[in-house]
Write a structure and sequence with these properties.
This protein is of the alpha/beta class. The chain is built from 10 helices and 14 strands. The protein folds into 2 domains: 139 residues, 3-Layer(aba) Sandwich (Rossmann fold), CATH 3.40.50; 166 residues, Alpha-Beta Complex (L-2-Hydroxyisocaproate Dehydrogenase, Chain A, domain 2), CATH 3.90.110.10. Bound molecules: nicotinamide-adenine-dinucleotide (NAD).
Length: 316
């Protein structure tokens, strides 16, 4: 980390990666941004294209097409490389392909002498975050998966839309696997401090069935978007920028990211989405919500599904 300006290295400049780079430049989050991809022409072209926007950006960002030696002075390496879901495929279906890709990438990043924070975005994100931790040998606090950051944003947006309030005043979390077994924590969801469960119980115009439908639309959002346009990328890109900013600006912000559990929520040895406080050092601490019985059962099921999927690929 011997650099006096912030440097982010992005590995994988596909749909998610290039959208992230674009959002990062537009928000002026880092002084240096390095792009790496197996498809060198693509990342070189992206660097040229993005540089042509520098004059319109809120602050200067130096962007170049680089290689793994640039990771040595990086504060954050963001991993967006890897296969994405085809229509009908689940995120867990990608595990074999993407763990193989990650082995080659992490080896090259670590060979540079990198000693910063990894952000992992490729799917299945919880398992690839665990793999990144194992393969890099870095402290667990410095490996952060995007987890349910996007699912939580989708949740807040849909609740805001339903109750006609600003999504930023909706507090609630989607936790668990970033995938089919994730769950909403209704017991801790509120609007401006008022519990959403209470609002639905007290006011006739709202219903529990509608809340259930909101969650289904959150959980299945990626399938719905992939069916229509082949991939999802703007939402996650903005979520990754939010996370990058929380780290570089030492925000101590609460974000739902994939982080390592060591007894929290009654679980161990798994990376999974839960609220956590994020700052310049990575994960400062996990926010442990008191789940109700059903939520706890659903969460434990989600952990089990991740562990069962991970075991044949990474060993137990
Ligand atoms: P994409 O196919 O558009 O881009 C993937 C990029 O990775 C390509 O440019 C490819 O050349 C590159 N790549 C592949 N192997 C590489 C290697 N060994 N080294 C360097 N680069 C390599 O895919 P996408 O739509 O950008 O999706 C990327 C990943 O992000 C997928 O796994 C997808 O499922 C995931 N994703 C995650 C979320 C989330 O919420 N975490 C949301 C959307 C997509």
């Amino acid at each position: 980390m011997a650099n006096n300006v912030n440097r982010v290295v992005l590995v994988g400049t596909g749909a998610v990666g290039s959208s992230y780079a674009f959002a990062l430049l537009n928000q002026g989050v880092t002084e240096e941004l390095v792009l790496i991809d197996l498809n060198k022409e693509k990342s070189e072209g992206d660097a040229m294209d993005l540089n042509h926007g520098v004059a319109f950006a809120p602050s200067p960002t130096k962007i170049w097409f680089g290689d793994y030696s640039d990771c040595q002075k990086a504060d954050i390496v963001v991993l967006c490389a890897g296969a994405n879901q085809r229509p009908g495929e689940t995120r867990l279906d990608l595990v074999g392909k993407n763990v193989k890709i990650y082995k080659t990438i992490i080896d090259q990043v670590m060979a540079s002498g990198f000693d910063g924070i990894f952000i992992v975005a490729a799917n299945p994100v919880d398992i690839l975050t665990y793999a990144t931790w194992k393969l890099s040998g870095l402290p667990k606090e410095r490996i952060i998966g995007s987890g349910t950051i996007l699912d939580t944003a989708r949740f807040r947006y849909l609740i805001g839309d339903y109750f006609n309030v600003d999504a930023r005043n909706v507090h609630g979390y989607i936790i668990g696997e970033h995938g089919d077994t994730e769950l909403p924590v209704w017991s801790h969801a509120d609007i401006g401090g008022r519990s959403i469960v209470d609002i639905v119980n007290d006011e006739n115009e709202y219903s529990k069935e509608d809340l259930d439908e909101i969650f289904i639309n959150v959980r299945d959002a990626a399938y719905q978007i992939i069916e229509r346009k082949g991939a999802t990328y703007y939402g996650i890109a903005m979520g990754l920028v939010r996370l990058t900013k929380a780290i570089l600006q030492n925000e101590n912000s609460v974000l739902t990211v994939s982080t390592y559990l060591n007894g929290e929520y009654g679980e161990k040895d798994v990376y999974i989405g839960v609220p956590a406080i994020v700052n310049r050092l990575g994960i400062r601490e996990i926010v442990e919500l008191k789940l109700d019985k059903t939520e706890q059962e659903q969460f434990s099921h989600s952990v089990k599904v991740l562990k069962d999927t991970m075991e044949p690929v990474l060993g137990s």
